[in-house]
Specification:
6% strand, elongated, two-stranded antiparallel sheet, Four Helix Bundle (Hemerythrin (Met), subunit A), 4 strands
Length: 164
């Protein structure tokens, strides 16, 4: 494949040129470049697939939360489910980073709004990760914090997918 890095969700075949990760394209320059380059059809497909992956991963996180709520009294099974949720949160984090990188392309009129929503989701994912970790370690209030943040995550993800 040459000078490329595999990016995206675990099952995707997304390829991002390694120059996207070079020091020249630091997070600040990527931050300033929103919809500044013309998108090829391949970039547009990757962008919308990334949004689909974000939606699917969020659904998976909600399902895992509901499973965990059913077995909250069974310590071992509960911890295994929460660890699975952490894996899904990591996947969501990676999908959001890919969306940031693809937002430099002119794809539709809502690229900037989607990027702003993705930033909010990214902050929420980091908080959810922390709360999930604390819950696994024994924090009795962590699970309630997770519930409220998952509700916000679902709302933000829904907004992200419905933007036109």
């Amino acid at each position: 494949m040459g000078n490329c890095i595999i990016a995206g969700a675990r099952g995707s075949q997304g390829v991002v040129p390694s120059s996207m990760y070079s020091r020249r394209n630091s997070s600040e320059s990527i931050e300033s470049d929103v919809a500044s380059k013309h998108a090829t059809q391949k970039n547009m497909i990757r962008y919308f697939r990334c949004i689909e992956e974000i939606e699917k991963t969020t659904t998976g996180i909600v399902n895992l939360y509901n499973e965990a709520a059913d077995v909250v009294d069974k310590t071992d099974e509960f911890k295994i489910i929460l660890e699975s949720m952490q894996t899904r949160l990591y996947d969501l984090h990676q999908n959001l980073l890919t969306l940031f990188k693809l937002s430099i392309y002119k794809i539709d009129f809502s690229v900037r709004e989607r990027k702003d929503l993705a930033k909010k989701i990214l902050v929420l994912v980091k908080e959810l990760w922390k709360d999930t970790k604390e819950t696994v370690e024994g924090n009795p209030f962590g699970f309630n914090n997770i519930e409220s943040k998952i509700e916000i995550l679902v709302k933000y993800t829904d907004d992200l997918t419905k933007l036109i």
